């Protein structure tokens, strides 16, 4: 009991240290790159200024309604900018999101059975170079990573009274924390408790005299091996978090498709009663205002944005293929060439649609041109897909800056070393977890990776696009060395 109490206090202080580390390094980065806090590369600040001024989500410096960017991030900034300077609002949102990401990653790691090794995952997130870099800019990476970590925690976590080690149920793989295919697990066979489970139970604080069989009897479980929360509010909260996530980055909408396909293949007897109604309700509550607003102001009940057509064409056009895809690895699209290409797009749009074309019409036409290129050039598209896969998982980001005042070779080497080690651990961790009997507890993390990679097979991609997956990457990387890390952290 003394050792358990000591471990508990050690874990708490370790978490506090990680949170303070996250706050400190973000503060230093923001101080060193203070001018970046107001550098509006993606027009989020322009939209946020309109919200702060009471014009709503409008194109920068206008009263024209826009759905070009997802609404969550500029809305957060706009509300704060009513009373705070722009740089302070950006810094506050990104710093808080960074600290929340570290906390949620640690708690999710505990729920996944990583124990004290969860501190390593939290530290990796706290020090992640991309989150630090984009945390100094008005971009969505910090908030999106925070929402991903909170969603993982909401799904794999549970109230403290139910936070128990789990037995794997090989009978099925349905994700019940999303409300799908709920059942109660079979009872453990008497006298067949696994020694590793008993040790885990002792470590996680299971009361003396409480057997795994009793836990199996009392706690509803999913056929996926996850604890099913007794509270309908927990599932509703999952829906709310998912709604916020897709309002921050619509990239994650296909996650629903990934989960649906998995459930259909593993659970053929689906019914209306087994659908995730509380999760659906939570998601609709958050997303419905955006959809209704889009119907009223742009004439279409749009779930996503009017940015998708541009990013599809940006990744699939002859200029990009000629100047980047067909060139040696590491070649970037020069700013001058990109500007000429964009100017040509504007001229072509004006010729074909007229000068008063709506944002929605432009988006549809750009999407059409992107699809036409893919259909006409399947081999070039295939090469571009491979280029996007490599770009998403590049250890050194390419083309994310303007080339002026870039990092030194030493910094680039350090970042490359960090990501080479981390991504190797991530890949090994996915394999290691998949071979374990309890792999199904990680189903959401696998689904998140599949979703992001799937979207960025087609749409514009660089290493920045994987930043929201940082908690997932860190947790898998730690899982690869979990046992060794636990022994190391337990040594006195």
How far apart are the first and last residues' alpha carbons, in Å?
Answer: 16 Å
Multimerization state: single chain
Got a strand count?
0
The major sheet is characterized as:
none
| Number of helices, counting only DSSP H or I runs of 4 residues or more | 21
Q: How do the helices and strands follow one another from N- to C-terminus? A: HHHHHHHHHHHHHHHHHHHHH
State which percent range the strand residues make up: under 5%
Q: In terms of per-residue confidence, which ranges show pLDDT below 50 for 5 or more consecutive residues? A: 1-6, 159-230
Instruction: Write down the overall geometry.
Output: globular
Average pLDDT taken over every residue: 83
Helix content: 55-70%
How do the strands and helices of this protein lay out in sequence?
Layout: H1 2-32, H2 44-52, H3 72-81, H4 86-111, H5 118-127, H6 129-134, H7 141-156, H8 195-203, H9 212-218, H10 232-248, H11 255-266, H12 277-298, H13 308-315, H14 318-325, H15 335-353, H16 359-376, H17 378-392, H18 409-434, H19 443-455, H20 470-480, H21 482-490
Short description:
With 492 residues, this protein is an all-alpha fold. It has helices at residues 2-32, 44-52, 72-81, 86-111, 118-127, 129-134, 141-156, 195-203, 212-218, 232-248, 255-266, 277-298, 308-315, 318-325, 335-353, 359-376, 378-392, 409-434, 443-455, 470-480, 482-490.
